[in-house]
Each structure stands twice: as structure tokens, then as C-alpha cells.
Specification:
Elements (H helix, E strand, L loop, with lengths): L11 E5 L8 H6 L17 H9 L3 H18 L10 H33 L2 E7 L8 E7 L8 E5 L7 E7 L5 E6 H4 L1 E8 L31 E6 L9 E6 L2 E6 L3 E2 L4 E3 L3 E8 L5 H4 L10 H35 L35 H9 L8 H17 L14 E2 L11 E7 L5 E12 L2 E4 L11 E3 H10 L1 H12 L4 E4 L6 E4 L3 H12 L3 E5 L3 E5 L7 E10 L7 E7 L5 E7 L1 H6 L6 H14 L3 E10 L1 H16 L4 H12 L4 E12 L3 H10 L3 E5 L4 H10 L8 E5 L6 H16 L8 H21 L4 H4 L38 E2 L3 E6 H7 L3 H13 L2 E5 L3 H14 L5 E6 L5 H6 L2 E5 L6 H4 L3 E3 L4 H39 L12 H5 L1 H4 L2 H9 L5 H6 L5 H4 L6 H26 L6 H23 L5 H22 L12 H6 L2 H28 L3 H10 L5 H8 L3 H10 L7 H9 L6 E2 L2 H9 L3 H7 L1 E3 ...
Parallel strand pairs: 15-28, 15-33, 17-18, 28-32, 29-31, 30-36, 31-32, 33-34, 34-35
Antiparallel strand pairs: 1-8, 2-3, 2-4, 4-13, 5-11, 5-13, 6-7, 6-12, 8-9, 9-10, 14-35, 16-17, 16-27, 19-20, 21-22, 22-23, 23-24, 24-25, 25-26, 26-27, 29-37
Length: 1303
Amino acid sequence: MGNSGSNDSGLWRTATVHTDRIENEQTKLEHKFTNNSISTSKYTLLTFLPKSLSSQFARLANVYFLIISLMMMVGTYTSLYDSPLTPWTTLGPLSFVLMVSVFKEGLEDWKRHKSDDDINNSIVDVMRITDSITDSNIEWIKTKWKDVRVGDIVKILNNHDIPSDLILLSSTEEDDAAYIETANIDGETNLKIRNVANTNAEGTGTVFTDEGTFINLHNSSNKGDTLTVEYETPNPFIHTFTGTIDYAGKKTPVDQSNVLLRGATLRNTNSCIGACVYTGSDTKIIQNSRQSRTKLANIDKTVNTTIYLIMCAQCVLSALTMVGYMAFENRKGGELWYLCYERARDNMPENTNLYSDCSWESSSDIWGYFFTFFILYNNFIPISLYVTVEMCNYAHAHYIDNDMEMYDEKEDVPAAARTSNLGSDLGQVEYIFSDKTGTLTQNVMRFQKASVEAKSYSMGEDLSDATFRCFPMNDLKEEARAGKQGYHFVACLGLCHTIVLDKNEETGEVEYKAESPDEEALVSAAANLGFSLVERSSGSMTIDAQGIGQGTKKFKVHATIPFDSARKRMSVMVEDENGKFILYVKGADNIMLERSKRSDMTQFMNQHLSAYASEGLRTLVLGKRDFTSSGGKAWLKKWNDALSSTVGRAEKMEQAAAEVETNVDLVGATAIEDALQEDVANTIADLMKCGIKLWVLTGDKMETAINIGYSCKVLQEDMTLIKLQAIDNDPESVKLQLQRLVNHFGQVTKLSKNFFEVLNERTEAVGRKMNSIKEGIGRRASNLFAKNDSEGGESSGSLPSSGGDEEGEETVLPDGLDLSQLESQHMALIVDGPSLAHVLGDKESERMLLQIATICKAVIACRVSPSQKALIVKLVKKNVYPMPMTLAIGDGANDVGMIQEAHVGVGISGKEGRQAVNSSDFAIAQFRFLRRLIMVHGRWNYRRLCKCILYSFYKNIVLTFMLFFFEFFAAFSGKSLFEDMVYSGYNFFLGMPPLMIGMFDKDMSQRTMLRFHKVYMSGRERMDLNVPSLASWMSQGVVDAILIYFLTFCVIGMSSDGMYIFGTTCYSALILSMMYRAGSATFTWNAVVVFFWIGSIILYAGIFLPIYSNWYSYAPQFYGVTAQMSEDATFWLILLLVPTCVIMLDLSKKLWRSMFVPTIIDHAIEVDRGITHDVKEMIQICEGDEDTIRDILKQRGEFADDGMYKWWTAFNSKLPKFKFDRNKLRLLNRKLDKKSRKELGIVDTETDGLQSGFVFDHVSKDIGVGGTGGGQDLLDDERFDSGDSITGSLRGSFRESFAGGKI
């Protein structure tokens, strides 16, 4: 019997189908294909420990503490230097941390192993034939999946999963087809049809009509025919397959339509038989299961940088202590005879002979003390930091998973955090990249309009239009009945598709299963127009055309050229009952118009398409091409030759398709409505108020995308639009337009005054402001809200406004600032795919595009491919400085690239499958849930995790500096103030407070966050974890260390009862102070927080100290310390005095900041706590109503010009953003004439008179950008002179500014 052979040469392999067992060991070795077992686990028993430890030591802090432990061992067991601590004080906690992390890794991997075993041991039927060749000798052996081999013949039963990639050879269905569901592969639940390989002599069906026909494959004694398959080597492309079957002297081409992929499920088919071609790791689903790019949270990167900074500080502190030791040794070393110093022999008291039995003499040189001090200060970095952060991240993911407000009850889909460590990144998003179809829209398609023979037809009742008449859709049905174009229009709808019919066995109802909602809508529309699909096989379609008076018609389907994102069209070659060959084509309008015959009808169709697009409808153009019988067969020969080609098949298929899809007769166009999802407009509006920029990346045409942009509030009616479009597909035209746009908007950066003159003027204004604030503190309650007679509240003068200067004021920027540092709330960029193709890859064009795009509030990219989506995200992520936090959201397979490229990927469980969800970090059911995910969960997660990290560093800084101060009183000897076990337990005793902060803390309620959108700036601007905040906490740590150590020293001095009495007293005061400090930093108190806060104190004072101080056999040096210490009244005085001083200092600092330098976050917290009662005024300020803000500031006696505040923020931020308002933008654009604006692609909806009619949830037919009515001619200079949009006095000043080149 034959055995599979392998011929992996180049891009092809050859396999022989067999029906025998592979039992001989030598034969198994010669079988070079991989087995069918899979393994998703990361470890084996042998590799678990080394690999898991290796992953743990990829973390910087773990490496640091391992090095510290080794240094302790060297200092303890060698004479190179002295270690002040025993190795186990660090090695013990490190081992515990590693053990917890490794155990977690092992538990997760054990679950993977268990899942793999369940799959690998599943059972499937494999054909085996004995030597006695009769039908009864065909056996179906129950075989484990892992034992299936390439070349095996496998039988799949209905509703069973497919164990490996198979070529379909036989099916029980009459049409020689099998129906599969690929939800496990691409998430799509619709059925897909797979056809048997046409192995019979005619090439119209299979030679394996039943199980008995497989007898011929039994070839051990040359009694049968050999079936070999030559096909492509393993690859991850699930939608492509190229191969050739060689059987009985006939070669049969096979492609993806003949392949059953592992992971799919057989549906609506009793059984089918296939030949195994890929097994195990070679299968396409496993080839696609490579782990996505590991994403490191932004906070983790900041923590790593912080650790480097703190390690540098530790080195500096160690060096300073060593210098102190050298100075002390130089001045006092000769007097230390009691330490057995050789050089102090001359100062020994008389009648002593200390050196006769002196066993201790430090043998390390002076440089060895650096390592001594470095070890002493090793707690500068908290050893439990990573464990604490991981536990916090796990809690954050749990909150998202169980948030009922993000649960879609209709679809029964909850939110899911698929990656736990990126929860804090949700609170730092600056750019959102969103798909449109299925993400912003419902992806529920409704056929609305059609254009046929210069007439427009509509499903709606309103048939009026500004420029042409619409007819009811029933009239189109009559046109189809009459024949000609109307008939071919509905025929194209009903035949050009890949719809599968799914019949309900119980009810007998037939349901369309489509690969996309668009296709289902079009075929349903054809049925409504009297051309209904009732039966389909692999080679034919049966149509019920009684609705148009033509009875039942059967069409032979000779070829289907599928749709893809590059072709943007689909074709089908059919033969009608009269033997006439017809090619029906449907595709994107720009593609179809290029390939069609020009006729008088084209201009009417273009007019209709523009009108449909202006209403936000999705459009397709339909066409046909007639062939004679000989012409059709001639092309089919070329097509089949291309299909069967083993070299360059894809290129030959593309050439054959291009040859036939030309000179197409246009038969009509369709318009489909895809309504917005619930609350999309308000969600986008709220996200943009948070300061987040939204980029919509869609495959729709520009007019459709613009109008959807208005509908969902991505675009506002007062926005100036910039359209970037290539002229005649010329790359230079795009580059030239970008250069002119950069030069045009670069005029805003022109200086009118010397920068230092402006700075001096604004500094004086700030001084006046500060004086007015100080003078007004006492009367704040009465003066603050005089306008509304409200009570209480804090000054909002320090709130940053949304920018914008007073009308007529000059825009001034310092010399050298880049155009990308400008920002406008009133600009949007519209760019199409062809233009992007010319920009991406050209560094200069990319730079100019980003300069313009970063000014704009929103960007819409049209006609973009999936690869372009990912490249756009990468462009922004890599080239905007500082690197912004990017989030991509989509629902389909075409969004996977950008979801994986962005820092945070969000998948929507939509109608395009689950590939986006499977590749995402977070999954939600509706776009509207993104608001809560970002504004609530994201902000909470960011703020509390930042506070948790800062507190973790802070408490260890206090401990380290107490040791540093003690060295001044310990002769810089490297002696620790604390007993070793007490010292090593510090992070354990104080482990719960930062964990409670990181898990539960909420600085304000969700209601406040959703009302005051600008509080999101805390994460977007990285306000909570940066160098200033770290410096603030560190400096406070040093001050608190001074208070704790020296207050304790002043009260009890260096106790004669022993160093550990003094040290443990300091330590106890330290623990209590840190608990108080954690309490003052905590906003949210619940039962769990209180329990662990009190429990931490009890753990130290009530459990550890009593037990450890009485454990004489283990720690004799610490015996009785607790009892002796607690009997002294000064100990209790210190526990009262020291923590009180620490907490009072902290509260005083917070009070001063809230009174004199409050931030917008402080104001929002006061509103949330009820301190500021004038909520209406706060909302006005936070929502950035510039006029209202300026009125409030004027009323309060503060300077109206807030330009100096902008300079303060500019000096204190990495990249200052200077916002210029609507008036300056309008006047800048009016400097251009009509021709120049057109060349630049600038559309000013006010200047050009294109007032948008798009309100929140609907689109007007005749008004709007791209609309057909309601527009005005562009304003010329005379109209500008006589216009009343600007007052005369301001007009004059602006004209002077323009004339002088100031703007």
C-alpha cells in the first residue's frame, strides 16, 4: 500500500492519498509531514522552571533584587566587603514573589495542556481498506485526532468539527456540496458552501460518488489508481488555496472552495469525505494562531524608567555615604581601638591586650564600602511592586468584565478585558482610530434606492428630490418585467453573490446565509423585485422569476470571481437556458466606471450616486457583459487553465479576470442604508470633549464618509474641511497640495512681537492675578459666584480654557515652534485611499500630512484598504512627538491590522465575525460602551494605579533615608538601624494599603466624570505619573524621613537599652505614619479597605512583634524587645506625636495646593464632594465655552487675556499645543480667492455657504457637503467687505494684520 510522500521543494509539496495504517516504524520516520497534535502550552515538565524563571527575570526589578541577593552572599561569605544584611532578608521575599508568579504561570499553562489533550484525543472516522477488495472490507476506524496523517481519508458527520485541513472528495448532498460554519476561524456564523473536487472525466463533479468508489485507491498490489495532490506549502492565508489533484490520468485544479479547514463545523450535510492535506501546526488555523505582538502598558514603561532613576539615586546615596565613611575614618579612625582597628593600637588603654584575642578586623578596602551601602539601601525599590501592579490590573479587568452598564442585553454580550495589563492605558488615549461599517453603524443593511436607465427609484414614501425625480420601487419591478436594463439589474442582484440557502427542517423556511450584510440585502431586494433565489448547487442556481412574469429559470454557474479588498468587485459567469453566456459584475463605483462603456446614462448615474452618497448611503454599481457561446467557452478555458496552473496561478487568474471585466455595460446602481448604532453621536461628542482626536478609517467613498461624519458628530457644522485628493492619480499633485497647505497654515506662526517682550507683559499680568487671588481669599464665598448668588466654591481662574483668543487678538507663537504644535477645534481633514497610497512611504509627504492632521480635530480617511489602516495608526504612533496613546476599534477581519498595531485594540462583537474581537485587548458589543470604557474605567484605572505606584516608591524612600540618617550616628559603618527580619518584612506589612488604593480608589464618581469631560486630561496629559509628580513624592518622602527619625531621636535619643529598642521604635512610628499617609491618599473607603488597613497594623503590632520578639531560638538578639519597648511611656508618645506630624504636614500641603494652585481635577473633586455648588458654571467652564469662561473671569476681576496661562503650560509640557479659534481660521482662509481654496481643498462651510443640514441622527437630502441644494456661491471680496459676520472695527484690524503678514 502507498505511503504519503513529501516533496517540499520551493512553494509546493506532493502527497499521496492512502488507505492503510502507518504501522512500520521506519515508514513513520519516512513520513515527513507533521503529526496532527497541537500544543498551545508554553512549557513542558523539563522547560517549565527555566522558561518561567527566564520570563520573570525579564522584569528589571527582579533582576535588581537577584543581583542584590548575590551581592549579599558575596559580602557575607567572602572577605571582599561586608554585607550589613543577611542574604535571606532579600532572597526570601524575592523567592516568595517569584514563587507566586511562577505558580500563576504554571496554573495557566496546566489549563492549556488540559485543553490541548481534550482536542488531540477527540475521535474521527478514518478509512482503512483490507487486501480483500470488496465494498464490505471498507472500514471506518475510530481514530484520535492526533493520529490523523497527511493522505488519510477522513469522514466528517453533520455538526462535527473538522480535525485537519481536507480536500473535499465526496458529499452526501445531491449537489456535491458541503456546508460549513467557520465561526471558530473567522467568527462568521453564516454558512459557507464548499464544493467537491471535479475529479470525473467531464470535470463537472466527483468520481467518488459513494464509499464503494474509494476501493480504487487501494493500491498495494497495483490493483488500483493512485491519487496524488500537489499543493502549496503551509501558509496562514485562510481564504486562499492552490493545488492540483492527479488521479486516473486526469489533473483537477482545487482551490479554497474545495477545502474544509480545521476548526470549521459541518452543517446541514449528513456526511462528507475528504483527503487530509495539512495536519497539526501546518493547518491554516494554527498557522494563524501565532501570538499577537506583546503590548507593554505605558505605565509599565514609566515604571521601568523610574526604576532606572531610582537606581541612579541609590548609587548617589551610596557614594555620599561612602564619602562620609572616608571622612569619618580619616578623622576618627585612630580612636576606634574598641573595634580592633590595627591603626588604633597606640590609643588602647593601659593594661589591655585586646589584640591577643581579637578576631574581627575589617578586611575590605575602602571601595568595598560602596557595595555595603548599596546593599543597605536595597529597599529603595519595592520588591513587591510587580506583584501589586499585577493584582491591581487583574481587579481592573474584573471590573470591566462584570460591568452591567456595558452589557448588551439584546445580544447577550458582556464587555471583556482580554488583556489585563492595559486597563490603565484606556485612561491615557489621545487618538482613536475607528472603522465605520459595523463599528459606528449597525451593519444592518436596508436596500433603499436604485438607479436604472437614468431613473432613480426609492423604497421610501418621500420621492421628492431637489434635482431629479424619484419613482417608487414597484415601478422598477415593472421595468424588470418589461425586460432590458431593468431585468438585467435584478438578475445581477440575484445571481452575482455567494449566498447559501439554509432550510429549517422544522418549519421549511429558507433563510439566506451571506458572507456580508450587504450581499444579503441585495439578494433580498432581488427577491422583492420578483427574482428570488430558491435553490443553489455548486454549478447552478434556480430562480423563481414569477414576480416579473418569467416563471422558474435555471442558470448554470461556470465561474465566480470573488470580491477582495484589492479588486473591489465581484463577477459571475452564467449561462441561461438559451445557452447565452452573461457576465454579471458588481463593485465600487470608481472601479466600475473605469471598466464600463461610456454612455449617456453615465452622467445620470453619477448624479444619482452623488445624491445617494450625500444621504450617507452605501453605493454599488452593477454591470453586465454578453458573450457568444464560443466567446464564453474560450474565456472559460483560459480561466480553468489559470485555476489548474501550478505556477503563477494567482497572477494568471488576475489576468483572466481583468480580460473579461472590461467594456462592461452599466445596468444600474444601488444604495443601501446602514443606520448608526445607538447613541453613537453623543458618544463621539463626549470623547472629543475629553480632548481625544478621532480618525475614521472607512472604505466608503468620500461623500458618504463626510455625511456619516456629520451624522455622528465627528464633523461639526462650523468646521473647515480640508479635502486631500490626488489629481489624475498623480503623486506630485498630493505632495504639492500638502506643501501649499503647510505654507498656508504656517502663516499663523508669524511673530508680531519679540517673544521676550510678550513674555514680560504676560508675566506682569500673572503677578496681578496672583495678588488678586491672595487678596480675595477671605471674601471668596461672597464674590466668587456673584453672578448667580451661589454659595461656596473655589476659584476657577486657574482652569485652562479650551484655548482661543479674543476676537481680533493676534495669534503669537515663539520663534522656532513647528506647525504641528498648533491645534484647532474647527478643522477636519478628509483624505482618500489613493492619496494615502502616494503619501505613505514618502517621508516628506508623511511629515507634512501629520503637520496638517495634528492641527485638525478630526480626520476621515476614505477608500482605505486594511493594510492602509494599520499603516495610518503606525504613522501617528511613531511620528507624533511625544508618542501619543492610540486606540483602534473595529468589528471585522479588515480591522485586525490596526487593532494589533495600536497601543490599545478594542473589538466589537459585530456581524462581520469575531476576528476583530479575537485580536483585541478589550471587547465590547456596541460603540457607545467605549465612552464608559475610556472615561470611567480608563480614568479610574490610570489614576489609582499611578497613586499605587507612587505610594509604593514613596514608602520605601522614607525607609531608605531613615537608614541614611542613621549612618551619621553609626560612624558610616553600614550598620542597619533595624533587625534583619524586621527590615525584610517592611513591604509585607505595608503591602495591602497600596493594593487597596490600586484596586478600589475613586477620586470622583462616574457621574462627575461623565459630566466634566475635561477631567480626562489627567491621563491624556500624563499628569499623575511623571517626573514632577515623582519628584514631589520623593521630596515628601525625604521630609517625612527627617520627621520620623529625628523626632524619635529627640524624644528618646540613642537608647541605652539597645539599638534595636531605638530602631524598632523608629520602625513602629514609620509603619503607623505610612498607614496614615496611605489613609490620607485614599478617596474610597469600604469594608474591604478598612479591614485590610486595620489588619495591616494588627499584623505588625499584634502578631509579628509579639511572636518574633519571643522566638529566642531563632532571633536571640531580638528577644524581649517588644515587651521592653511597650513598657516605656515615651514609646507611646512617639506613636502619637510622629504620625500626627507626618499627616499634618501632608494635609497642609494639600490644603495649600487646593487654595493657591488648584487644577481642573481639584475643582471637579470639589464639585463631586459638594464643596463647589455652582455646578452649572463648572460645566460651562469644563466644556470649554470660550465666551462664558471669559465672562466669568472678567466678572471675578481677573485678567481677560489668558495668553500667559498658555505660556505657563507651554513651558511645563513636552509639546505645547496652541489653539487658534474659529475667527482667526475664517479670516486666514478668506485671504484666499476661490481658485486657491479649491486648489488647497479647503471647504469653509460658512465662507463657502455650504451649511450642513446634518443633525444628530438624520441627513437632509438637499443640504450639506456634497448635497445638491441649499448651497451658495463662494464669497468674493465684495461680499466680504459688505458682510456682517464681523464688526467693522475688528475687520479693519484683521485687514492690517493680513497686510502686515502677522497672521
